[in-house]
Modulator protein (Sandarakinorhabdus glacialis), 448 residues
Amino acid sequence: MLTVPQALDRLDSALAAAKAAGADSADAMYVGDGSTSVSVRLGKLEDIGRSEGEEVGIRVFIGHQSASVSSSDLTPQALAIAAERAVAMARLAPEDEWAGLAPADRLLTTLPQDLDIDDGQDPSAELLRDMAMAAEDAARAIPGVTNSEGGGASAGRAVTALATSTGFRGGKRSTSYGSSASVLAGAGGDMQRDYAWHSARHFSDLEAPATIGTRAGERAIRRLNPIKLETAPMPIIFDPRIGSSLVGHLIGAITGSAITRGTSFLKDALGTQVFDSAITITDDPHRPRGLRSRSFDGEGLPTNRSAIIENGMLTNWLLDAASARQLGLQPTGHAARGTSGPPGAGASNLHLEAGTDTPAALMAGIKRGFYVTELIGMGVNGLTGDYSRGASGFLIEDGEISVAVAEVTIAGNLISMFKVMVPANDLSFRHAVNVPTIRIDGMTVAGA
C-alpha cells in the first residue's frame, strides 16, 4: 500500500498523461486497503482472511464528454496507457452538459484537518482470534443460548488520495476495527437469533469482545416464544440500532441524483417543514475518530458540519458538482465516489439530536404498541415515501416492554412518519449514523 505522498505522485503522473493525450481536464483517485478478519464458531477457528488491494481511477473530460477507467497496475507506464484509453473513450462518449470537475475556486486550499482516524495499530491475527473467541464464548455462556452463527474480529487500514487538474491534491489514511457475535437461543422450530457488533477507528475505543458477546446472547434469549400481533394502528418505538435506517431514507431522498431525476418523495420539500420543529439532524464530517470523517469530499471540496434538518426544516440538498449545475446551485461538499465512474453524493457522520424524554417516558403513555428491534426487507418506495417492512421486537403494554413479537409488518408513509417522529434523550455515538430511541405514532402493524 502506498503512502499518501507516494499515491499523490502516481496521480500527478496519471493527470499529466491524460493532459498529454488530449484531455481538457481530469481527476484521479487512489484507493489502497488491507484488512485481516477472523471468524470462529462453536469455540473453533473457522476462517482467517487477509485481503489487500490498490487501484487508481482516472476520469477525463473533453468538452462535455467524459469517461472513466481504473487500473490495479500502478506503474507510470500502465497509468499512462489507462489515461490514453480514457481519453479515447471520452471522444466517443455522448455529451453531458452538466459534467465537469468541481469549481476550482471552491476547492480545499488548506491542509486537510487531522481527524484522528489512524491510530497506527496493527493487531495480530492471533489477537483478533482471541477477540472473536471471547465474543462468542460470552454469548454462548448466556443460559438458554443453544447454538452459534459465530464470533468475529477484524482490523483494516486504508489510504485514499485525490488529485485534480485544477490543482487539488489531498489524501488521508485511516484504520478500522470491529468485533461481533451472533447466536441462537431455544430449540427446534422455536429458535431465535440475535447479534451485537461494534466498530471503531481506534483499537482502544473498541468495546470489549465479552461485552459484545453478552449483549448478543441476552438479546437472543429475550426473543424466545414470540407472539404475532393483530393488524391494527399502533404507536411504534424504534430501537436506536435500527432507527438509524429512517435517517438513511431521508438521505436517499435528498441527494442530487434523486432530485434531478425527480424520483424523490421530497423533491419539492427544500426549505419546508419536513419534521417537527424539535428535530435536528446533523452531518458532521469533522467528528474526531468518526467512521465517515473526512476533510474533503470526492471532488476536492472542503467539508463542513451542517444541520441537514434544522428545527424540522430541510435546509439543503446533498449535491455533487454535476447535480448542482443541473439545479443551478452550488455543490455542498458531499460528493462521494470510488475509483470507477462519476461521483454521487452522500452524507458523512450523521446524528439525530436527542430529545428531552427518557425512553421510558416516551413509552409511558402507550397502552398497546410495538418496540421494534429488527427490520427485514427493503419495502420503501423512494418516489412516494410509502414504507412497509417486516419487523420483530417486543409488545408494549401499559407503557412497559413485555413479550417478544415476530413475523409482523409495519407500514406507513415517510412523509407523515417524519412529521410525528419524537426522539428520546439516549443518543450515543457508536456508529456512522447515530439516533436515540424514536417514537412514531399512526403506523399500522399487520400481523396474524
About this structure: Residues 226-448 form one domain. The radius of gyration is 24 Å.
